[in-house]
Amino acid sequence: MEGPLAECAKGEHFHIVTPLLESWALSQVVGMPVFLKYENVQPTGSFKIRGIGRFCQEVAKKGCRHLVCSSGGNAGIAAAYAARKLGIPATIVLPEGTSLQVVWDEANLRAQELAKKDGWVNIHPFDHPLIWEGHGSLVRELKAVLGTPPGALVLAVGGGGLLAGVSAGLAEVGWQHVPIIAMETQGAHCFNAAVKAGRLVTLPDITSVAKCLGARTVAAQALACTKEFKVFSEVVEDVEAVSAVQRFLDDERMLVEPACGAALAAIYSGLLGRLQAEGRLHPSPASVVVIVCGGNNIDSGELQALKAQLGQG
Ligand code: PLV
Is 45 in the pocket of ligand 1 (CB under 6 A)? Predict the structure, then answer.
């Protein structure tokens, strides 16, 4: 056995090699083979364990005795899981109060403050080279199964850690020409704002329901990726992301969160077809891969509530 499967068998990392399955239903929607990379089945429910696991293992080797993370979302779950596996205590600093995003900055400051203690290390949810390196493992798995490069790769962008990691992974396997369709929701669109402005932009607030995409400023590395890779930055409305969640549940019987709905909306909202019509994407690509990034922060009640809130109920 070689490659990522062997790495996993040896227990060298905390993520699993996730399934890559062709979806008949989604392929019908866009008229080309759509492959789904099921990161929602990771032990922590999202791709985050790849990069955060990598980061935690590395700092543990260097003597870290306490991990700190200010994300109450998937990054925090991954940090807690990795810490437990390593047998190191972890403090997850959660925002308190109603305006989640504003207090998130406070939680982040508090985490940075805590990490000044001797032996304590703060884990950034998306902005660190080790995190990108860990996320890049996903592309090695794609190559091992697909062999030939897909016509496009669709992913969601929050702070841009997944984008930076996947880009690095594409370069590593010689697939740097594969177009990346980088999806965000309106109100959590810090990457799109940066691409348009040509520099980093800080959003005043996160107004989207896709809270896991809720970084106010994207990592500089994500913006830098647009210089070296073919990245299409696209924004969908919350309504499109949530209806993608519902359609995906009906099509594939998997319940994912709105952050992931943003990526799936590239298929369901007709965006791929538009990119083809505009000549920006190959008219008949061999396949398209969508990263099904996460399925936490959602249950049947929450989906109903989101639909009602967005007038889809
Ligand atoms: N969520 C991070 C960062 O939020 C968190 O703390 O949980 N899809 C899912 C399901 C996610 O949880 C995230 C990130 C993303 C996509 C986007 O990944 P990123 O931040 O690496 O672009 C701000």
Answer: no
Ligand 1 within 6 A of CB of 215: yes
Neighbours of 146 (CB within 10 A): 15
21 forms bridges with which residues in the sheet?
36
Which of 112, 128, 144 is where one domain is finished? Answer: 128
The predicted pLDDT at position 4 comes to: 46
Please identify which residue in the block is written with the tokens 């952050």.
259
pTM of the full predicted structure?
0.95
Are 297 and 255 within 8 A, CB to CB? no
Q: What is the CATH number of the domain that holds 251?
A: 3.40.50.1100
Q: Which tens digit of pLDDT belongs to each residue from 114-123?
A: 999 999 999 9
For residue 100, give its domain range: 48-128
If you average pLDDT over every residue of the chain, what do you get? 93
Concatenated DSSP letters of 5-39: HHHHHTT-SSS----EEEEHHHHHHHTS-EEEEEG
295 lines ligand 1 (CB under 6 A): no
Of 104, 128, 152, which one is at a domain's C-terminal end?
A: 128
For residues 243 and 264, give the distance between their C-alpha atoms in angstroms, rounded to a whole number: 10
One domain, residues 42 and 182:
yes
* Same domain, residue pair 36 and 136: yes
Ligand 1 centroid from CA 47, angstroms: 9
Asked if residues 287 and 32 have their Cβ atoms less than 8 Å apart, the reply is: yes
Number of domains in the chain: 2
* Whether 232 and 282 share a structural domain: yes
End-to-end CA distance of the chain: 49
What is the 75 CA–ligand 1 centroid distance (Å)?
A: 7
Distance 273 CA to ligand 1 centre (A): 26
Q: Measured in angstroms, how far is the CA atom of residue 162 from the centroid of ligand 1?
A: 8
Check pLDDT > 80 for residue 8.
no
